[in-house]
Design brief:
Blueprint: E1 9-14, H1 21-33, H2 35-38, E2 40-43, H3 55-64, E3 68-73, H4 88-98, E4 103-108, H5 122-135, E5 144-147, H6 150-169, H7 176-195, H8 213-226, H9 232-244, H10 265-277, H11 284-296, E6 304-305, E7 313-314, H12 315-327, H13 335-346, H14 365-375, H15 384-398, H16 404-410, H17 420-434, H18 442-452, H19 460-470
Parallel strand pairs: 1-2, 1-3, 3-4, 4-5
Antiparallel strand pairs: 6-7
Length: 475
């Protein structure tokens, strides 16, 4: 018997049922056909016996027994659990994420043949849209596969499972870099919790003793991405600090903004994103109200200004507004979104990068990073050429002959921080991720090695978030 078959690997297949019955059967056949040679076992609703517990309990118990999670998402959201308001299919996915299982995500093509009765409408359609947006978000660390037919799905699933099992059975432990990344994330989250301003909550890394929206929101996002079990209380206090510091215009402002009633777009967007993505649920209408205010500040040409009420667009403000609004369920097919995408793409320079604002003298790593983050929300159908051009610019700007230290010191960071060397390296790594430059690229690996070997101080939340983007791609 082969080495792969020495240990049984259980594969849980999650999906809605009636609309995807043929697809599930194709997956089951593939997994069972791999059983003898690879030691693979199918888990799914089909094997539940007559005396099973309630569907939610049975499903989540199977996820807990699984080694690999396979999520198949069609046009139905599925049966909704009355306690959580989420479908059982979504709960299965979230349990797999909580357990840090390898997640193989398959999303049906928009033009696949689907019966009309199997297409969601109303609230369920909105929930399905939001879930698919999260699944396909690059920051989640998933590779998402599209399928058109049961045969498409079966072929791709077989390849994915084989690749995953080869990694596990190669006998190679995690690389030194991967171990250092995981340790750096844990250390960074510990430092963030230590820096929390108690008892009120909130964080400050630049303005000692005075919590800021930017630092607080980024700290919440870093703690949630880091997945540290003992961060719950800090997240709760951070939520309340942010909600308590909205201003009269319904947003948040930079500590450098003198007018207390003016909201700045980036601070409002990052606060909204942090509250949404870190599970704030006490007063959801506060988030909906902020999202509406943010949407209303879009300039007719499609961009967003640095501050509410201004009439000139900025690259960073537009990108962060898109990122926050898509997290809130802002449809990428909406006219507002299409104008925003068109504006961001129109601001790309001939060299492939982006500048701070129209008419600025040159492209910068920071604004190219922001722009790539923003357009990543739209998928690659319309943005692929722009992303490829950005890849070229980033690799030229990074200069292969320069060390991380030399690169960091050679370019100006935006905004100017206390240590632009670290900031520039982090911005390059984030931009490289959104541009699709492989984690195995020598420059990316060199810069990750450099980052994990440094103390980040003021950049800890951003560094943790950056490393979390790469943790699944460095083996």
């Amino acid at each position: 018997m082969s080495q792969q078959a020495e240990k049984v690997t259980t594969v849980f297949v999650s999906s809605t049922y009636e609309d995807l019955k043929e697809y599930r059967e194709a997956c089951r056949r593939v997994i069972e056909s791999m059983g003898k040679g690879w030691g693979v076992q199918f888990l799914g609703m089909e094997i539940i016996g007559p005396d099973h517990p309630p569907p939610k309990t049975a499903s989540l118990e199977m996820v807990e027994k699984s080694d690999i999670y396979v999520g198949i998402f069609g046009m139905r959201y599925g049966s909704i659990d009355s306690q959580t308001g989420k479908s059982i299919t979504e709960l299965e996915y979230r349990k797999a994420k909580e357990l840090r299982l390898p997640c193989l995500i398959f999303v049906i093509d928009d033009d696949a043949p689907v019966k009309a009765r199997c297409v969601e409408t109303g609230l369920a359609a909105d929930k399905l849209r939001d879930l698919k947006r999260e699944l396909t978000d690059l920051a989640q660390g998933h590779t998402v596969y599209r399928f058109h037919s049961p045969d498409d799905l079966a072929r791709e699933l077989a390849l994915c499972i084989a690749r995953d099992l080869k990694k596990k059975t190669s006998g190679e432990p995690l690389s030194g870099l991967r171990r250092r990344i995981e340790q750096a994330i844990a250390d960074g989250c510990h430092f963030i919790r230590e820096m929390e301003i108690l008892p009120t909550g909130g964080w400050s890394f630049f303005e000692v003793g005075q919590a800021t929206c930017w630092d607080t929101a980024n700290s919440l996002l870093a703690l949630a991405a880091g997945g540290q079990a003992d961060s719950g209380a800090s997240l709760h206090r951070g939520h309340h600090w942010l909600i308590g510091h909205r201003n009269r215009s319904g947003g948040w402002r930079s500590p450098w903004e003198q007018n207390l009633d003016v909201s700045t777009t980036i601070d409002t967007a990052v606060a909204l994103l942090a509250l949404k993505e870190t599970g704030y649920e006490e007063r959801p209408w506060e988030l909906d109200s902020t999202a509406r205010n943010l949407l209303q500040t879009q300039i007719p040409d499609g961009g967003w200004p640095d501050a509410f009420g201004q009439s000139w667009p900025a690259t960073g403000a537009t990108a962060w507004a898109i990122r926050a609004l898509t997290a809130m369920g802002f449809p990428t097919t909406d006219p507002h979104a299409e104008r925003a995408q068109d504006w961001l793409l129109s601001q790309q320079w001939k060299d492939g990068g982006w500048a701070a604002a129209p008419g600025a003298p040159c492209s910068t790593v920071g604004k190219t990073c922001d722009a790539l983050m923003g357009i990543s929300s739209f998928g690659l159908k319309r943005t692929q050429e722009a992303v490829q051009q950005a890849q070229g610019w980033l690799l030229r700007a990074r200069r292969p002959s320069a060390s991380a230290e030399e690169f960091g010191r050679s370019v100006g960071a935006e905004p100017q921080g206390v240590n632009p060397t670290i900031e520039n390296v982090l911005l390059f790594l984030e931009a490289a991720f959104y541009a699709g430059i492989p984690a195995s690229h020598a420059l990316v690996k060199d810069d990750l090695e450099w980052i994990v070997g440094r103390r980040w101080w003021a950049y800890t939340p951003r560094a943790v978030r950056c490393l979390c983007l790469y943790r699944k791609w460095i083996t």
